[in-house]
Amino acid sequence: MKHQIVVLGAGYAGANAAARLAKRLHPADTEITLVNADAEFVERVRMHQLATGQDLKPRALTDVFAGTGVRVRQARVTAVDAEHRTVAVVDADGPARIAYDTLVYALGSTAADHGVPGVAEHAHFVAGKESALRLRARLADLAAGAPLLVVGGGLTGIEASTEIAEARPDLRVSLATHGSLGDWLSEKAKGHLRAAFDRLGITLHEHTDIASVDPTGALTTDGSTIPAQVTVWTAGFAVHPIAAATTLRVSARGQIVVDDTMRSVSHPDVYAVGDAALAPGASGSPLRMSCASGVPSAYQAADAIAARLTGRQLPQNKIGYTAQCISLGRRDAVVQWVTPDDEPKPSAVTGTMAARIKEFICRSAAWSMSHPTLMLPTRRRHTVPADEPVAITA
Prior knowledge:
By secondary structure, the protein is an alpha/beta fold. It is built from nine helices and 22 strands.
C-alpha cells in the first residue's frame, strides 16, 4: 500500500512542500494529496496590490501540478485528528475525511484583531484574497477626500498604506503604529521610509494604540479619535485555530511546535511549515511569520520526510535571512539587508532599484511555485521499510 502524504494549504509553504516531495519520492510508493480551499494559488505578498485594483495572474492549482503526481483536492479543512491520522474537510460534495500516513500542515495565518472591539465588524483586511477583494470594492466607492486609516506599522501596514496612497492620491491616508515608523530598520532605511510617506502625503500617528474601531474611524487608548470612512487593520497575524484544537503540541499563539526538521515534537507523523509552525532557524531562534520563512521551511520539511522514508541522511537546518523587502507603491521600495538572525545591517537599497529587487523576488517566488517540474533535479527514490537503518549518504 502506498504511503499517503497529505499537505494542508497551498500557499507558498504548502505548495512548495508538495512540489518538492513529488521530486524526491517515487510515485510507485507514495501518494501526495494537496488540499486547499481555493482553486488557485494566491500570491499573498501581493494582496495590497489586489486591494488597490491591480489584477494578478491566475494560477489554477490543477494546472500548476499537472504531470507532477500531486493530487489537488479543493476543500476546506475543518479539523485534524492527530491520534487517528485523519483530516476532516468540506468540499463540493459535502463533509469528508482524508486519511494520512504523513501530514504536512501549512494552513498559514490570518489577520489578528487582538480582541479590539469593532475590528471584526468594521475593519478591512489584506491577509487573504477574499478580504483584499472586499477592500478593493470599498475603495472603489470612496469619494475624493475621504479619510482612510491603516492600523499597524509592520511590513503589511507600510505596504498597504503606501500602495493605497499611490493608487488613490485623492484620499486622506493615515497610518497608526504602536511604535515609531520602521523602528526596526537601519537609519538609512528609516530615513527613506519617512521621505516616502511625506511624498505620498500619508499622515503618521506614531506611538498610538487603538482601543476600538467603528464605522466612523478609530478611538485611541488615550481617548483621541482618528476619523476614517475605511479602517484597514494590519496589526499582526494569527494562525488558524485548527491546530490548537488537536492533541498536537502548540505554542501560546497556536503554532505547531516543531524541531529542526519541521517535525512535530509531539506527533512524529506530522510536519508543520510556514506561519503555522513555531520553528527554529539555523541559530535556534524562532522564525518569523513570512514568505521568507515559509519556503525554506517547506523545503526543509520535504527533504526530511523524503530522507526518513527513503533511508537517507536528514538535512541540516540552514534557514536564515538575507533581507527584508518593503514595497512603497509600484516604483519605490526599501531592501533592508539583515543578518541570518534577521537583525538589520547598516546597509540598505532604496528607491527604484529596491523596487526592482522586490519585484524580482516576488516574481521568482511565484514562478518557482508555478513551475514545479522545472525546479530541482528529479531524484524520485523508493521508500524503505521503517526498520531499515538510515544511510549516511546525502
